[in-house]
Design brief:
Layout lengths: L6 H14 L4 E6 L1 H6 L10 E3 L8 E6 L2 E5 L2 H11 L2 H12 L5 H11 L11 H18 L1
Parallel strand pairs: 1-4
Antiparallel strand pairs: 1-2, 3-4
Length: 144
């Protein structure tokens, strides 16, 4: 069984990676690790690491040794959380938006942009995803 990760353990992980690195690099943190660092949660189960991509929207967290650590694209994270649809994911997504990391208008444009490519992902039902997305946006409007 895995133990929960808090900010102290995450910082120790970042420092250890920085010490072990033999050259410069970048690590993108996503999901629970991002929620932890933004203060949305006080712990998570694990650290999800994504490979470089969407660099222009990824936010620098820190540098340890020669390794830079980034939050993976907040728009991609929110879209993934909506896709999963779990209550804690939707709460995290709402908080990321509340913190100003994602603009709802831009998120909506990106959502429409990905629609033609969803056929590549058989596990995603486009109609269900649209329903979840619209319910999430509607709930945001009701909250604030």
């Amino acid at each position: 069984m895995r133990s929960n990760l808090d900010t102290a353990k995450l910082d120790a992980f970042v420092q250890a990676i920085g010490r072990m690195a033999t050259g410069p690099g970048r690590v993108y943190l996503v999901g629970g690790a991002t929620a932890l660092l933004l203060g949305i949660r006080d712990q998570t189960i694990d650290v999800d690491i994504k490979l470089p991509g969407w660099r222009e929207r990824s936010e620098l967290i820190t540098k340890a040794g020669e390794v830079e650590f980034f939050h993976y694209d907040f728009y991609g994270q929110v879209m993934s959380k909506i896709t999963r649809g779990h209550r804690h994911d939707l709460t995290d997504a709402s908080e990321i938006i509340r913190l100003g990391k994602v603009d709802v208008g831009k998120l909506s444009l990106l959502f429409e942009e990905i629609q033609p490519n969803l056929v590549r992902y058989p596990a995603i039902n486009p109609a269900v995803l649209r329903e979840r997305f619209e319910a999430f946006i509607s709930e945001l409007g009701a909250i604030g």
